[in-house]
Amino acid sequence: MEERKYPEQSPFAVGFAGRCPRCGEGQFFDGFLSVKDRCRVCGLDYSFANSGDGPAFFIILIVGFIVSAGFLFVELSFQPPYWVHVVLWLPLTLILSLGLLRPLKGVMVALQYKNKAAEGTLDG
Fold first, then answer.
1. How many CB atoms lie within 10 A of CB 64?
2. Which of 110, 108, 111 is nearest to 100 (CA)?
């Protein structure tokens, strides 16, 4: 039987959209972060999808930079009371972290598919 050829998808485009990394059409997520078993359009088995702690690491870097820079700017420019910092930076940290988690997980899995990444094994 002839295997269908799919056009190459941009890992960032399909990852941010939460689409299948092979066909770019089927939904990848089943809920907020849980991954479906397979694509309903092309039938790709998603059992390879394991992003690990990669998305959380990048979120720490991105959100940490934004919040730290904003905190320092506000503190050095306006010197507000501490409660203002709590009101500003705690919600921003939560919103940015939760908002970036799903797209970054999608990108990590799409890159994993594109590069045919798999768990390392030892020969023997």
1. 13
2. 108
Which residues, other chains included, contact 13 with Cβ-Cβ below 8 Å and sequence gap of 6+? Answer: 19, 24
Q: Helix crossing, 54-78 with 82-114: angle to 10°?
A: 150
CB 20 within 8 A of CB 38: no
Q: Which of 31, 36, 55 has the alpha carbon at shortest distance from 46?
A: 36
The tens digit of pLDDT for each residue in 59-83 reads 999 999 999 999 999 999 999 999 9
Q: What is the pTM of this model?
A: 0.89
Contact 18, 102 (CB under 8 A): yes
Which amino acid would we find at residue 31? G
Listed residue (45, 44, 39) closest to 26, CA to CA: 39
For residue 27, the Cα-to-chain-centroid distance in whole angstroms is 15
d(CA 106, CA 62): 17
